[in-house]
Amino acid sequence: xxxxxxxxxxxxxxRLARLAAVWAVAIGLALGASPAFxxxxxxxxxxxxxxxxxxxxxxxxxxxxLDLSYEFSGGAYAxxxxxxADTRQDGPQVLGHIGYxxxxxxxxxxxxxxxxxxxxxxxxxAGLIERxxxxxxxxxxxxxxHLRLAVQYSPNYIAPHAxxxxxDLSGSRPLAPDWWLFGxxxxxxxxxxxxxxxxxxxxxxxxxGVRRSFxxxxxxxxxxxxxxxxxxxxxxxxxxxxxxxxx
Amino acid sequence: MRRLLQLLVFVLGIALGPAAARAQPLSPDGADxxxxxxxxxxxxPEHFHPNLEYGGAYGAGPAQVARQRTAARLARDYGxxxxxxWPMPLLGLDCIVLAVPSGASPDEAAERISNDPRVxxxxxxxxxxxxxxxxxxxxxxxLAQPAAVEWRLAQLHxxxxxxxxxxxxxxxxxxxxxxxxxxxVAISEDFVIGRPGRAEDHGTGVxxxxxxxxxxxxxxxxxxxxAKLLALRACWQRNAAGPTVCDTLSLAKxxxxxxxxxxxxxNLSLSGPPDPLLSELLKTALARGVTVVSAVDxxxxxxxxPASQTGVVAVAQEEDPPFPGxxxxxGRDIPTTQPGGRWAMVTxxxxxxxxxxxxxxxxxxxxxxxxxxPALVTWPAxxxxxxxxxxxxxxxxxCDCACRRAAx
Lengths: 247, 408
Known about the structure:
The complex is a heterodimer.
Chain A: H1 12-31, E1 39-47, E2 51-52, E3 55-56, E4 63-71, E5 76-87, E6 91-106, E7 112-124, E8 131-143, E9 147-154, E10 163-176, E11 179-192, E12 203-214, E13 217-226, E14 237-246
Antiparallel strand pairs in A: 1-4, 1-14, 2-3, 4-5, 5-6, 6-7, 7-8, 8-9, 9-10, 10-11, 11-12, 12-13, 13-14
Chain B: H1 2-16, E1 36-41, H2 62-77, E2 81-88, E3 93-99, H3 106-114, E4 121-124, H4 146-150, H5 153-156, E5 166-171, E6 185-190, H6 201-211, E7 228-233, E8 235-237, E9 244-246, H7 248-260, E10 265-268, H8 276-287, E11 291-295, E12 313-317, E13 327-329, E14 334-338, E15 342-346, H9 349-365, H10 388-392, H11 401-407
Parallel strand pairs in B: 5-7, 5-10, 6-7, 10-11, 11-12, 12-13
Antiparallel strand pairs in B: 1-3, 1-4, 2-3, 8-9, 14-15
């Protein structure tokens, strides 16, 4: 269910309820899995911009996120990412969350297939008016040692009945000990385009950057951008710096 | 900018906190590897993270932290200590190294862990050993010695070094203080009258070929580095670069001394006219089981004396045409010891004879039964070129030194 632009945000309780539902399903899956190397993992990140498929949601302002995931031994996993943004008008605000549930299976030494579902509830602070975004994605990905191809289908991308397909090609390759080169190319296509202001055109987005690992922490610098029209005062591309801490 | 700095400080604050201590790299430490167990796991592949870049099948970040956490958990569960590990993408395995406490059995630990359903398998760290003793010596000139290759000297020394064998070098003065002969000369005597003894080229060179110390990071390795020399000066060098000369009396005294002082091998890298006194002494030596080795003089009838005496092992330089009745051994461009603590290249049948004396010292150590001077094995149709390895391993099918070692 998507709240129209300008409508009161869903309560924090409502958000937590959704997350609890995701975790309930995840725990249910866990009951059928052996208690081998199941473990909780997480990351804390900070970056100078938060983008959704190439579009900034923070207006080139800083954001921080917490990613928690639980990995079951059989390949099932569930997690949630909570994002906070430094908004221009109201200072630090919760930008939203993304809950996910999936299953990954190894098909070769370095190959795997990953399927799952995500539920995203985000706020776009980049425009003149805050805009709530809520959509669900079904995704399927095949990954190798250095490349991953993911296809994400949303039956309600940003607007009801707005079906969208997002194709994500991402890669990562070591440059030297503790140095990595990463890149991403994405293509968003409105399968069924809604009319009115919620409509959007197909576009592609990209990122290319380097990451330096310091044990559990990473620093990254990337150039990110997208095609298509952008809001007044914004650019299609720019540098984004970030830091991640994994635990 | 201020807000960005606040966010970065926030992240760094977490990074510096005790709960987020920098993870130890999973790399094997310097612990005793014999007390370690390898645990092989099939790790779950990296999964989708909506907020993180794809890090590869075995990327850094969450995957690395997960491996470290798994290693710590396994170590805790089995009372061991995580000692390292690394991913093996080509095998789809993660390898974790666990250290077993001193006194505990790595085999037992590996067996217990192998029964863990979480583990693909576990095995104790194993040690592997090279299958031959030193295939070379660390003496810097070793590889310049023809015998290093032709006779596979280093492999021979895996069987024998001449330990316990006395070799009499009846020659000009040996530099007993030469660093490559340190400790190799048991007795040094001078039988030359009227010519004061000082280190001389010929004797020092012959001695070095026979018994130079091996693996002392100096010079060469002798054919019989375990033998002890009786350095018996019976010859002298006429001038600084002159020929080496001996007389009947000094030689007789030296041969007599060698016999009475239990020399098992006598090296006579010299040649001259037949001499009845010396002949009698040599017969006595041969009768007492002494191996007498002499150099061939191609210009003399039957190779000169004492090479022509029955029972004496005659040796010619293998680089020259074969000499009837004589063995052929390396004799050209032989690196060996020289006075003044030096080494130099020498050429001549004298040095070929020295090689054979050393070889007989090896045979003596091996306790060869039968004649004191058993026939050496030669390469077929080679004009007497010695197959040192086969000679040392006589009585068995001809094969290389390595398989002879296995058979023994």
